[in-house]
Each structure stands twice: as C-alpha cells, then as structure tokens.
Amino acid sequence: MTLDWREHASARRARPPQVRGAVARPRLLALLNSARVLSVVAPAGYGKTTALAAHLPELGRSAWLTLDVDDADPQVFVAGLAVAVAGLPGGEGPGALLDAGATPRRVAARVADVLDAAGALLVLDEAGHLAGPLAGDVLRELLGGRVALLSRLPLEHPALTRLEAEGELRRLSAPDLAFTRQELGALLAAQGVTASAEEVRLAHTLTEGWPIAARFLAQAAAQGRVPLSALAELDGGEAQLATLFTYLAQEVLGPLDPSLRALLTRGSVFEELSPGLLEAVLDVRGAGALLGALERGGTFLTRTGETYRAHPLLRAHLRGLLSPGEAQEVAGRGADYFERTGRPRRALTAHLQAGNTGRAAELLAGSGGRWLEQGRVTLVGRSLARLPGEAWTPALHALSGDARRLSSRYAEALAAYAQADPLARALGEAQVALDTVQPEHAWSALDTAAALAPDEDTQARIARMRAENHLNAGDLARALELAPALARGARYALRSGDLGRALELALEAARGEAGGARAAQNHREGLLLAAFLHAALGEPQEAARRAREGLAEGERLESRFVQSLAQARLGHAEAIAGREDAARAAYTAALALAQDVVPRLQVEPRLGLAYLEGRAGNVAEAGAHEAAALASVGGDWYVAGLTRLVAALGRWQGGDAAGARPGLEAAHMSFAACGDRFGAGAAALALYAATGEGAAEAAGGVAQFPFLLARRSLVSPVPTRAARAALLARLGAAVPERQADLRPVARSLGYPDLPSPDALPGVDVRVHVLGRVAVTRDGGPAREWGRARARDLLALLAVSPGGLPREAAQEALFPDADPQVGERNFRVTLHALGQVLEEGVASGTFLERGDWLRLLPGPDLSVDLDEARAWLDALPGTPGRAPALLALPGELAGGDLDAVQTEAERYAARLPEALGEEAEAALRAGTPDLAARLAERALTLDPAFEPAARALMRAHHARAYPAAAARTYAALGAALAELGLSPLPETAALHRALTGQEP
C-alpha cells in the first residue's frame, strides 16, 4: 500500500459510541468475558453495539472499529485497524508496516500481536461486511488476538469453526443480549420508574427483553407517556409498543420479496408458524423452505423444532397492516385447523381473534382446569380477561376462582366462587380455607358440598378435603381415620413430631420445585417446609438457604404468599443464628407482604416479632403481636401452640418468668391435644427451665429430641450453649434415672460426661488473637482491658498452648524491670487478666495460675487460634475446610513479644499455603469457582505466592476465562519483580499452555 493509506482510515469509526443510561448486567458481562474470541450475532435493535460499548471499562484495554461496505477491501480494512490500535502499547507498528507497503495479511498479524501483548480486546462492529472472500485471509490472521465480531447475520469462516471447536470462541445471540426480567426491572428502576413484579413481568412479556424496546419502554414510562399499569397483552388488545417497530420495519422488511412479506403479514395473526399451518390455512406451498429463508434473513424469526416464532412487536406491527376483516377471516380458519389437530390453546386464541367468543368460552371451560393443574395460571387468567361478560358461565366463574386462588388472591377468588353454581361455590370456599390453613372456615362449606355432591367421586373428594381440614385443625386421629394416606405426608410427620421423616419428605417434595410452569403451593411448598424444619432442628444455615431458595421461587411465581412465608422462615433462621436485627427485618418484610393476602399469613411473622420483643423486654409490644397472631390462627391448634410457645420463650429469655408461665402451660396443652410429641416435649422442657416443674417429662423430651439442648433451635428454652449445658446439668441431677439418655447430649455440647450443676461456669468465653486481641462472653461485645499488659499476657498464653513458666512470662512482659518491681507488675497484670477472663466464675476455671501459667480451653473456653491451627493442619479437601480458611482473618494481632511475633509470622506464611492447597483440592474436585475464590484469597495475602497463582490460572482456564488467566500471570510477575524475582519455569510453561502466549 502507498503512503496514502490514511485516506482510507477514519478516526471517527475507530471510536466506540458513547453509551448513556446503561445498567449493570453481570450476567452479560460474564458472557463477554467467557472466551478470547466472541461472535455476537443478533438482529437490529438487540444492543450488540451498546452491550460491548457499555462494558468496555470492565473488559480491560480495548480498541474499536466500526466497519462499512468499503471494509470488504482488505487494504481499507487494515488501514482502519491501524488507526484503531494506534493508542495501544506498540500500536504504531501496523501503521509503520503500511508505510513500508506490507501486505494486508502481515498488517493484520501485527495487529493481533499488538492485541496479544497489550491483553487488549478489539471490537469489530458491523463485522458482516467481512463475509466476502477477499477479507477472509486478513480475518484469519486477526483472530490470533482478543476479538469481538458484531454482526446481524452469522459469519461463516473456517477459522471461527476451528476456534469454536478448541473452546476459544463463544457465540452470543439474541437471547443472550435480551434483558432478563430482573435486568428489565433494574432498567426501569434506573429511570426512576417504580414497577410492581406484575408490571415488570408484563413489560418483559411485551418486549421479550428486546433491548431497544426495553429502553424505549423505560424512557416512555419515566416520561409518563406509557403507564405500566395500563399495558395490555399483545394478542387481541392494544399494542402500545407496536409503533416502536415502525422505525425498523423498512430495514427489516424492505428487502424481502413481496410474497415473503405478504406471508409474514398474514401469518402475524398466529403466535407460532409451522409449514402445516401455512399450507392448511394460507394455502402456501413449500412453506418449510420459505420459513427457513425468513429465519436466515434476520427478520426476527426464531425456530424451535418445526415451529417458527416472530418477535411480538414485529407481529403487532404486521397485524396493524391487516384489515380487521382479513385478520378475523385468517384467525377463523386457523381456529378450525388447531381444533382439527388437537391444539385447544391455539384454537382458543384464534377463536378470540376471530370473534367466536362462544366457542372460545366452551374451549376454556373444557380445558382450563387441566391448564391450571399444569401450572398455567397466567394463561387461564389472560384468556378469561379477554372474554366479554356475556360469554361468561357459572363454570367460568368457578374457573376464575380457581385461577385467583392459585395466585393467592383469595378475596377475589371468593368473589368469583360466589357467582359459580352452589356446589362449585362450596368446594371453592372450602379449598380456600384449606390453602390458607384456616380450618374453622372450612367446616360449613364442606357440609354444604357434601349435601350437594352428585356422585361417589365428588363425595370421595370432599372426604379427602375434610381429612386435610382435620389435619390442619390438629385432630390427627380423625384425619387418618378419613384418609390413612395422610400419614405418608410431610405435614402429618411434622405435626405428629416426627421431624426427621418430615424433613426427608419435604426435601423430596422440594426436588424439581424451582423453575418450570407451575402454580404456587403456598404453605405446601417443600422448600419452605424444609426451611421451617431446619429451624426447628437448630440448623440455621440450612434453614436460611432453603428460605432464600423459596423466596427466589416465590418471586419467580409472583406469589406474595410464598414470598411472605419465605421471609418469615428466613426470620426464624436469623433468630436462631443470633442475628436479631436481620431476623426483625425479615419478619417485618414478611408482615408487609402478608397484608391484604390472608390474615393467617401474618401468624408466623408476628410470633417471631413477639419473641424478639419479649427478649428485648418490650412486654406490651410482645403481647400485641402474640394476640394478633392468635386471632388469625383460624382454628389451628398446632399453630396456636407454636405461637404461645415461641412468644413465651421470648418473655422467659427476656427475664419475665412469671409472664412466660401461662403461655408455656397453654402451649403444652395445645400440643398435647394435637398429639404432637415434639411440641409437647419442647413445651415441657421450657416449663421446667422457667419453673423447675415437670423434670421427668422434660428429661423425656430431651432424650427424644436431643437437639433442643444440643443446638439452638426455634423452640430451645435458652439460647446460649453454656445456658443449655447448665439446664442439662440441672435436669440430670433432678432425674438421675435418665442420665444415660442425657449423656449423648452432654457429649455433643463438648463434655466427656454429664456435668454436675456446680461444675459449670454457665458462660461461653472466647479468646481472640486473630485480627485483634479480645475476650468475649456469650458472643457479646469485647471486654474492657484493665491493663494493656494483660492483653499482651493473653496473647502470649494463646500462642503457647501448653503454657509456660511464670518466670518466663514475667521476663517476656517486663524484661528490663527490677526483679521485685517486675514481680509486682506481673502479679497485677495476672490479676487483671483473671478479672477479664473469669468474671463471675470461680478462680482457676479458665486460667491456671502458680509456677506454671496456661489457659484451660474446654467446652466453656475457646481460643480462635487453636481452631485456626486445626483447620490449617487438616488435610486438603476435608469437609468444611475451604469455607473455614476463607473466613480466617489474614493475620495474628500485632504485639511486641517475640513469641507472639514468631507465631504471627508462622500464621502469615501458613494461611496462603493452606488456601493454595485447598484451591488445588477444589480443582481436583471439579469446583473451579471455589478454587478461584481460595486462590484469590491467598494472592490477596501474598501476591507473589506462585502455587496460588498457578491454581488461579487453571481455575480461570476451567471457567473459559483465558484473559483472566493472562492477567493473573501478569500480576504475579509484577509482584515477583518487586522482590527481584521472576516466575518459575513451571509457572511460565503453564501460562503458555493455557493462553497460547509467550511470557
């Protein structure tokens, strides 16, 4: 090329566009970072350019070139490349080659070298212009670097096929670029638009996440031009966003042959197109080939199996081009076709479009119940909404009640059932009471239904409903008499006290709950039942995990009932974990979500708040919450007992023993009447703790349900380990014949045998030397130090597990003091440490004094360094080691004592090593995400630690992040260079193998 190559290069096209108003999209960013070469192919308006331009800061160094038709000429193309990379380190090289008359292939290879050396990404927008044969060789050379190709039509090139096979290329398409429902919600929020979950769902349905439509809608909503509350479904209603497609219509549809355009226009009546439909309804021959051509032509047609689907906004635009008469005629023919081929849902939609409301009503009445059983509640509700009032029948009112009930809109459901026939009304009202666990509201409706039942099948259904109502009321014997199969269910196991079996069944029910079309099961949700059981069993982490999973599922199902119940169960988990502020927040959120759903839903958050207020000593507030909860139990004796027990425990733990006793006694009576062994045992234990009465029954409860004292459960009488140990010791002394049953509980609390009451300090003391030197009691705030040297003495004893001579400790603390002065100062220091460690307990409980000094760790005294050493010395891959290492502080608390400094150096060296070992174990176990977290933590502590860097590079490679692997190697090299070192040969070799780059 001659020296005029710059005439072909535009600096304007080498600048990325400015993006305003973009929201963070971590999901999309992860995809953009997932491979060295990206092929991003999607129709117009899908935000290819915006996605890359908005995320350039997170993608590292970059260069940009927007192509046009002239770039099919390789000489023009490489001239633009030279300008695009000129600002990168070494970026002047391609231009110098052009000045020297180098070939386009050689220039492209130099551009790839520049990209590789700089670790930079080259974005080629409108890359479809490289589809011609002339640019093929240049593109092949260029693909040696990090490149993103943005195009409306797929790029076919042998080099791309090879890179994809090698895992170096990632293809992104319209679904990857589309906004998810959560991202659309974030986009609306960023524009200052407050949208409900239903409004976000409908907005997402209308736009299908099409980025340009989503942004248009967000702007229009923010400006008040399109109220989200007024959005309608596209089929059969006003399509407020259809005009948005007009600006693209000519570009998308203009180049089409008139016959293909007519085919798309008439086919827009239907949600999906198939060759059979077009041939039977539109008399099109060779429809399969025509649809395939339309799909490949970038006309927003996507294929699933044998069907093709246009974007809803394209369909809306095209439908607007049809006359009403023509659209109805096509829809009518389509309805006949769908009925002939056994597709009632499509037939229903087509009949509605054709104006055949009577036939549509018949189809909906016949198929709606089955659709609800399949979880297609939205479909039924949307179809009902499109039927005119004169087409409604009592059967459709009953169907409407079922749809609203399954959407947790119980007041609306009851209003709909009121317009159904008498039997359907009675059954619907009874089912609402069952769904909301309000047994007293179901009896009358069940009696009415039984009197109206026309056949044995209906009578059998009513008997099953009556049995479930007895179960809800707490009458287990009568429930099993009517329906013995209930004994195999999780809720029966829970209410009879078989918590282990209940959890097993709940987890079995939870499998497969997440995802898929289904209706919310409300209190029957397996995940949420499991969350409650984990809380009852004293397993807060599992309880919180299941509750959060249930919350996410409730949000997906748009069920306020499920979300409220999930928040309540999360509150239980946080409460037994000792995070009372988090528990209060969860209970408050649950209560807010429960408003206007059903009063019964308020019970659990209110019993949780009653517990927290009672513990805080707020007697009036606790009583108000308990009274409101009991007023909403709806005849459920089990829940009434649980409410009284938990609220009374709050009062008892808050110091109001007298106020707690009536509630504990009432709870015990409720559980006994229900036949719940667990509830009765928990209430008996709580009564013994508060009054000293009923020791034998309390001991039996602990023997049967040892976790009541082994762990902090939702209904444990006292929260702290030490207090539970003290209660266990009292119980063993009071009922000596049950001591053999209680010994396993003592061992689970850390004691070799059942302790005697006078041998326990009644407090958990913890010594901290990691990160800080402190002493805490029962998880409370750190104790105040009387003397600074007492703090140093504690650190010295903590790093000396076997203890040390008194003289050695005195010399370490007061090395230059006169012996008599040093002895006096040391005696005062030792006394000060004893006051902090052993406040309120007998001297010598935690600190051995005399000629030999040492801490006395045991169940009631723990040292964080001892626990850290155990994890550091554990074998890689030991269960629990990875999270424990990640949670360890990075250093030992500083100090001027030699022994403490030596231990601090040992700890600082050992922790990165252990993290590196565990990262290697995680890689072997096939968990690269965990391996990356462990290795990153190790490198945070020691940036020059090569084993961790190698593990992190392999983790990035396993997750298809080659650029991240290269960055890890570069960071390691910089850290070693500061020490005058360079990476080991094995590290350099790994870098070459994983990235294909020379160090």
Structure description:
The chain is mainly alpha-helical and 999 residues long. Helices cover 60% and strands 5% of the residues. It is built from 51 helices and 13 strands. The strands form four sheets. The protein has a five-stranded parallel β-sheet, with helices on both faces. Strand 11 (847-848) and strand 12 (852-855) form a beta hairpin. It is flat, with a radius of gyration of 36 Å. The two termini are 33 Å apart. Residues 233-239 have low confidence and may be disordered.
Shape: flat
The radius of gyration computed from the alpha-carbon positions, rounded to a whole number of angstroms, is 36 Å
Largest sheet: 5 strands, parallel
Structure annotation, total helices:
51
| Spatial ordering of strands, largest sheet | 2-3-4-1-5
Summarize the model shown:
The chain is mostly helical. It is built from 51 helices and 13 strands. α20 crosses α21, α27 packs antiparallel against α28 (499-510) and α32 runs antiparallel to α33 (603-615).
Question: Which properties best describe this structure?
Answer:
single chain; 999 residues; mainly alpha; 5-stranded parallel beta sheet; 3-stranded mixed beta sheet; 60% helix; flat
